[in-house]
Amino acid sequence: MTVTRAEICAVACADAWRDSGEVLAHAVGVVPTIGARLARLTHNPDLVLSDGEAFLLAGPPPAGATAEDGGVIEGWIPFGRIFDIVASGRRHSMMGASQLDRYGNQNISLIGDWRRPKRQLIGVRGAPGNTVNHRTDYWVPRHSVKVFVDRVDVVCGVGHDRARAGGAGRFHDLGVVITDLAVLDYDAAGRLRLRSAHPGVAVADVVRNTGFELDTTGATTTRLPTAEELRLIREVLDPAGSRDQEVRPSS
Known about the structure:
Strands 1-5-10-11-12-13-14 form a seven-stranded mixed β-sheet, with helices on both faces. 27% of the residues lie in helices and 22% in strands. The chain has helices at 5-16, 30-41, 79-88, 127-133, 160-165, 203-208, 227-237, 243-246; strands spanning 24-27, 49-50, 55-59, 72-76, 91-96, 99-100, 106-107, 110-111, 119-120, 135-140, 173-179, 182-186, 192-197, 220-221.
């Protein structure tokens, strides 16, 4: 059976929530959303899902649909309470990243000099609070030297070096970075390293598309989805195939 790169990425995202337990999942992007919902339906039934607004879901709707379109609503939470959850650490986020450096400092605000940027992006948003209060992972659908840079233009999400220097390390918890090429995590010094390259991707391809030195020692191959995971992705969570719009099948 042919497995697409997007499906491999979705399962890698699901595995990021494997040991999270009963926390609120925050997923930015189609593939991370599928991953969080897949985790709930398989190895982490205690994971709390939301529709991205106010409803908490017992049964997730297909990708792109709202809770009213097919999800099973088990509760609701006003927006203001989300800040309480973030501050208490009972949340696990997988955010996007326009830039990431070797220590996991993330930029989603702008490209270029902040006084006169070349590109204005979505702004700092909740990245600082997320990264100093609870587990934060990153999703990068296009792994390239434009994203993985030696120095980010603006620090939004706090990396290991800055958390330690600023005394914010107590609840600082960066987990993994999942891309269309690989899964990365951090070494004891807080620097990104290659955990696994996706099937069909050479380690040299990951290194070439990373703008800083990357430790590849001990890197493995990202696991393939099981038959049941594929069924859930294809028939329940994303029957329309929106995952392939975020990750090109030939990545």
